[in-house]
């Protein structure tokens, strides 16, 4: 029974962080397992930061005073900040453009990928398994229409929706979760449409961006027409809390 619990924890930590299961196995050899796990996981994280570029992944900034960084350090603690070098450049270029076009704008990244191995799933995403995809948080305003630099409706950047009309039917067997109770607990922020339009315009013009996924009602409000801007479909998670881009 104890062995099954250990195996279950290894599997869970591997699915959540890619490196956590290995850190847990190392910690099993020590009496002070929690401390050993924390130290092992930190060491593996530092090693990943150094070794991931050898496999074609680079990290996005977790702590930065510049125009781009991860939405929350938690995503970095879970090793979800790694992308292909081309995607890193796209995100950096966008953040510089946005800070120039709209002074004081801060671009926040959400899930990229784990540091190693193509095909390793980044749950709950249907893709994000090769470093070629990245989610970006929406830009938000307060109810008075003032831009909120670096803020997000949800602390994680996900699941705080800019609600709008949808043609998708209500189903239990897809990933289109509404989290209605959660919405009542979140601040009354609204999407910053001018900044959203600027971001979509810039990304659509970037030759390295192949596809942009966002809810149709947000694309319509932004008024940007491009063959790259598409609906992710009714089976996938809602995309009125973030912009998905891919190479």
Summarize, please:
With 247 residues, this protein is an alpha/beta fold. Helix content is 37%, strand content 12%. It is globular and about 60 Å long.
**What would the principal axes of the Cα set say about the shape?**
globular
Number of domains: 2
Question: Which secondary-structure class do the elements indicate?
Answer: alpha/beta
Tell me the helix content: 25-40%
Give the helix tally.
Answer: 8
Sheet bearing the most strands, described?
4 strands, mixed
Rg on CA atoms, Å: 19 Å
User: How far is the first residue's CA from the last residue's CA?
Assistant: 45 Å
Unreliable stretches, pLDDT < 50, 5 or more residues?
Answer: none
Secondary-structure blueprint of this entry?
Blueprint: H1 2-17, H2 20-27, H3 33-51, E1 58-59, E2 68-70, H4 73-77, E3 82-83, H5 85-101, E4 107-109, E5 133-137, E6 140-141, H6 180-185, E7 190-191, H7 193-205, E8 211-213, H8 216-222, E9 229-230, E10 242-246
Parallel strand pairs: 2-4, 8-9
Antiparallel strand pairs: 1-3, 5-10, 6-7, 8-10
Key phrases:
37% helix, globular, alpha/beta, 247 residues, Muramoyl-pentapeptide Carboxypeptidase, domain 2
Write up this protein.
The chain is an alpha/beta fold. The protein has 2 domains: 1-55, no CATH class; 59-246, Muramoyl-pentapeptide Carboxypeptidase, domain 2. 37% of the residues lie in helices and 12% in strands. It is built from 8 helices and 10 strands. It has helices at residues 2-17, 20-27, 33-51, 73-77, 85-101, 180-185, 193-205, 216-222, and strands at residues 58-59, 68-70, 82-83, 107-109, 133-137, 140-141, 190-191, 211-213, 229-230, 242-246. The strands form 4 sheets. Strands 5-10-8-9 form a 4-stranded mixed beta sheet, covered by helices on one side. Strands 1-3 form a two-stranded antiparallel sheet. The protein has a two-stranded parallel sheet with strand order 2-4. α1 runs antiparallel to α2 (20-27). The chain is globular and about 60 Å long. The model has no long low-confidence stretch (mean pLDDT 94).
């Amino acid at each position: 029974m104890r062995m099954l619990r250990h195996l279950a924890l290894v599997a869970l930590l591997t699915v959540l962080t890619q490196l956590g299961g290995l850190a847990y196995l190392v910690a099993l050899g020590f009496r002070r397992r929690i401390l050993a796990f924390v130290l092992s996981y930190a060491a593996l994280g530092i090693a990943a930061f150094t070794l991931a570029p050898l496999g074609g992944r680079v990290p996005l900034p977790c702590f930065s005073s510049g125009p781009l960084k991860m939405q929350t350090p938690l995503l970095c603690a879970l090793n979800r900040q790694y992308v292909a070098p081309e995607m890193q450049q796209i995100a950096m270029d966008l953040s510089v453009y946005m800070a120039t076009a709209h002074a004081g704008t801060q671009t926040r990244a959400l899930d990229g990928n784990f540091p190693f191995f193509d095909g390793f799933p980044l749950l709950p995403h249907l893709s994000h398994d090769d470093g070629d995809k990245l989610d970006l948080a929406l830009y938000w305003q307060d109810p008075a229409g003032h831009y909120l630099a670096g803020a997000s409706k949800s602390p994680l950047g996900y699941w705080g929706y800019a609600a709008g009309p949808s043609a998708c039917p209500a189903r239990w067997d897809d990933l289109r979760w509404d989290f209605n109770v959660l919405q009542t607990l979140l601040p009354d922020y609204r999407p910053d449409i001018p900044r959203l339009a600027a971001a979509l315009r810039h990304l659509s013009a970037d030759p390295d961006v192949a596809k942009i996924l966002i809810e149709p009602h947000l694309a319509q409000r932004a008024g940007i027409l491009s063959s790259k801007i598409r609906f992710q479909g009714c089976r996938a998670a809602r995309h009125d809390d973030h912009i998905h881009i891919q190479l």
